[in-house]
């Protein structure tokens, strides 16, 4: 009779073997034999079985002792710390059954031979039988031991893995989730160590909004431990999944440089397997991954997700010796997968506040409370329930206080760090990677933490009033008239992806310039001529990783447009070219030198007239190049270009020539060019403008202002500013008729259709082709339009 197998090669297990070798090891085995054809590289190894764990308990006679310790804990006669310490000691004093230890040693020797080593270096990871389930991640609950070599060291690491089933944090987590401690077994996974010079984590879904069409990758130098623990602010990359692997596209939508101040490397001294060191200036200022590596990892994320048929959380590393990328772990994503379908919870601040800090937003919620600053585990006892936790970085040992906090703010960490994972799972907002929250925020200080404003999260001074609303997307009426969205921020585009809209009718380039770029484009195009020393210093700081300052503008603008386009792909996204007034442009860094003072900027050098103006053409070229990159390089061909504030037919022709000279030709590649219809001259000559453009978007604010001669910002004249005025309605009616006569599409972007049901009915009666409104008015407007169409 063959001896019972207590150790299995990864190639012998699959995803069906979670009860035998734990979720983590089952996933590794599954990928090794199922994804070879996709060239997904997974380091080889083996796993001890759940039977080996149970035999360890029986032969060391510790199963009854475990039960007794758990009872003490449940009754409160022992603290978590004391019970956990006693439970771990039971394992650390225990001996492996002879046949189990023998099979571990044999498997290790075989693995060493396979890699042509006398004693191959391995990572020994804990994999529990209840781990990596779609409903519970168990992130960071058990231990991993890196850079282990030699039979004795491997056996000892396996014993420590067993003991880690009863770390304080693991006990606490299972109690909270309702798992029976004694029904869970542990498997030790022994995997060829990737001698990583770069590593990180990636998700095949947007971890904040649940948007399914992107891969988010975090990366840092050295071993991946610093990314998972949140010990550094890593680089971040976003890739658009539907275009991954397509010819002639490189769908990298965003690249964000992290400071990456530290890295974990292999220790050379005896008794230590790894050590933490500071990174070099060059490493801090360089991206960890090149474009080919980013795309390779994204391809693997797509292949792994497709195989498992669910969004995945994946750890990866690059071997510094071979230069080869590897996947070292994969588990189901556990937060967005469980969110209720068909509903959307929205948050918004009801008042303005002074910003104290910013960082990466985790989640989309808002929290207002007093700060409780914790520096280390020794201070956990001072945490006050209902506070906002402020710390350098979190650790799995902090589990007991996470349930008591309203939000988390950290100095360090990216979207895949421990603080981010825990906050998502608990449904509380977090802002990670702020840099200096522990220095800026005082203990007991009242703050408001907002993750409701896009990718960037903000900490405001004081307790601000905010609104929370749960919106049902079920039973929404269908409309013949397409209802589109007005979107300002790239982060906001992902927030609203669940709305069943027909695309984006208005996205504003100037918002991206003001918030992401911050610099006047001419100050970048002619940096050597810039006279303002302070502006030069600020620009140098913002653009330090760019040799050519113009590339900073092109990169940042493209990375702002791409998420907006991706959020609705393949539905149309109408991107309006910049429409700053002179006073708004002057407020940008370096702007004063390139702008004149105008008496009436609203009617001055704005919109179309800038694009061919000798003093601004160099800036417009950068805008065009960014749009070209989004459409042609990233591959988001659903971007439509729209020209604002075009006063005359001659000006329309000049702008179209300027666009063509900069590679944006109407027609080739399916490019459509629209025009904002917002000046009375546009209405009078609508048919002739319609011959030059593919579509119109009626800008109801400017049109009403210019038809009625009313300053739209004047509080004294607010009663006169009304889109329902008969003169305005006649002009709108005239534009719709003329546009259709010229075979030109015509929509409207503004709040009037959602503010006034009768105005929506008027638009429907006159055959408007689309209505574009702010996302928070979408559902209401959809119902109004359906009702109007019914009549």
How are the SSEs ordered, and which strands pair?
Layout: E1 7-9, H1 18-34, E2 45-48, H2 50-59, H3 63-75, H4 80-92, H5 98-114, E3 122-128, E4 144-148, H6 151-163, H7 168-177, E5 186-192, E6 196-203, E7 214-221, H8 225-229, E8 235-240, E9 252-256, E10 262-266, E11 274-278, H9 281-284, H10 291-308, E12 312-319, E13 325-332, E14 343-349, E15 355-362, E16 366-373, E17 388-391, H11 399-402, E18 407-410, H12 418-426, E19 430-432, H13 437-440, E20 446-450, E21 456-461, E22 466-472, E23 483-487, H14 490-495, E24 504-508, H15 509-517, H16 521-525, H17 533-542, H18 549-568, E25 573-576, H19 582-586, H20 608-611, H21 617-634, E26 639-643, H22 649-661, E27 673-677, H23 680-684, H24 686-690, E28 695-699, H25 700-708, H26 726-741, E29 745-749, H27 752-755, H28 757-765, E30 770-773, H29 778-790
Parallel strand pairs: 16-17, 17-18, 18-19, 23-24, 23-30, 24-25, 25-26, 26-27, 27-28, 28-29, 29-30
Antiparallel strand pairs: 1-2, 2-5, 3-4, 3-5, 6-7, 6-12, 7-8, 8-9, 10-11, 12-13, 14-22, 15-19, 15-21, 16-20, 20-21
Describe it for me?
This protein has 791 residues and is α/β, with parallel strands linked by helices. It folds into 5 domains: 7-192, Dna Ligase, domain 1 (2-Layer Sandwich), CATH 3.30.1490; 196-337, D-amino Acid Aminotransferase, Chain A, domain 1; 340-470, Phosphohistidine domain (Glucose Oxidase, domain 1, 3-Layer(bba) Sandwich), CATH 3.50.30; 482-671, Phosphoenolpyruvate-binding domains (TIM Barrel); 673-791, Alpha-Beta Barrel (TIM Barrel), CATH 3.20.20.60. It has 29 helices and 30 strands. Strands 23-24-25-26-27-28-29-30 form an 8-stranded parallel beta barrel, surrounded by 6 helices. Strand 18 (407-410), helix 12 (418-426) and strand 19 (430-432) form a beta-alpha-beta unit. Helix 3 (63-75) packs antiparallel against helix 4 (80-92) and helix 5 (98-114) packs across helix 6 (151-163). The longest helix is centred in the last third of the chain and has 20 residues, at 549-568. The model is unreliable at 132-141 (pLDDT under 50).
